[in-house]
Protein: 7-carboxy-7-deazaguanine synthase
Organism: Rapidithrix thailandica
Amino acid sequence: MEAFYTVQGEGFYTGHAAYFIRLGGCDVGCFWCDVKESWEVDKHPQQTVEQIVAGAMEYPGRKAVITGGEPLMHNLDALTFALKENGFSVHIETSGAHPLSGHIDWVCLSPKKFKAPLPEVMKKADELKVVVYNKSDFRWAEEHAAQVSEDCHLLLQPEWSKQQEVMPLIVDYVKQNPQWNISLQTHKFMDIP
Ligand code: SF4
């Protein structure tokens, strides 16, 4: 769908320069999705792996973040191996609703209520990032935290439009449950993509 060099705005790697590769296609259907234009896979022109990697090589950063859409709707073997060959650390941002593929160094799992993550992806998550939309999401977050590995980083992130309302709840929750950290969509504050 698009690719661009920017600074990771959210999650464990907030503040790190990274080349974002946004793949078209998503069948999860979150009503608050902020990239709904990514949903239809056929709307976006295809590029070769070589073209995508050449785009990434134009910049000095060597972190590549594959996102979407739901990037695991595609087999990522060829793209991730080509990125690795060219010295990139490969990160993925996924709902976990499709099987993992490719060589991935960092799995950011952001499960969604609309399509459950697969157990195999949950076990591989390096970071569990739960979007908090309302109070009941804390219980839902804990249900997922119980299924990831022990060293998985746990993050709660306010849904952007609900920030004012849920932020105080998240702050209280993290103070009481310090195994969780807060993730903010800092790119929206910085006005960068
Ligand atoms: S999984 Fe991501 S891209 Fe897909 S609908 Fe949800 S927020 Fe949008």
User: Anything to note?
Assistant: The radius of gyration is 16 Å. The mean pLDDT is 96. Residues 93 and 108 are 5 Å apart (CA to CA). The first strand starts at residue 2 and ends at 7.
